[in-house]
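Researcher: Please predict.
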Amino acid sequence: MLPFDNIQLDPEVLPSVDDIEYVGLERPYLTIALLQNFFLFGACVIFWLLSDQWKDADLRYLLYWGGLALLVLVALRFITIYLNFKWKGYALRERDLAYKKGWLFRSIILVPFKRVQHAEVSQGPLARMFGLARLKVYTAGGNQSDLSIPGLTLERAEQLKRFVLKKLDHGEEE
């Protein structure tokens, strides 16, 4: 039987994820996010303006105030989109890929290369107009991407994908 070692580590000497230097997303990604919200905002404004056309006064009243509340929420969304954009970023390190997101509810995702199964680059219509793409990284045990980095130039997304896949091909060990 093999000996079992499980050496305890001191948490005080572990590297901090706060020390990672992240690369911000491309500025046109903010424009895309704001445009998408603007379309939602426009639909809310149209709905709100049309609420005056309803004959039933109770329903018109409900639609009017509901629409106004929705407009306020969408307007607040503009602010959160901007603040979230400033927080988002990615970092490529020797053994993993990191992505941070969230202004109010922050999260940092670290994906070790040795867990990666597949990587792909995707573009939606708006992203394609702005020359941007999204890198999706899949790890073992799931059918959805475990890491999705939006707001990359198409060239950078392809470059990161090649790098990640090259790490897989070489089967680099620790």
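Model: The CA atoms of residues 122 and 134 lie 5 Å apart.
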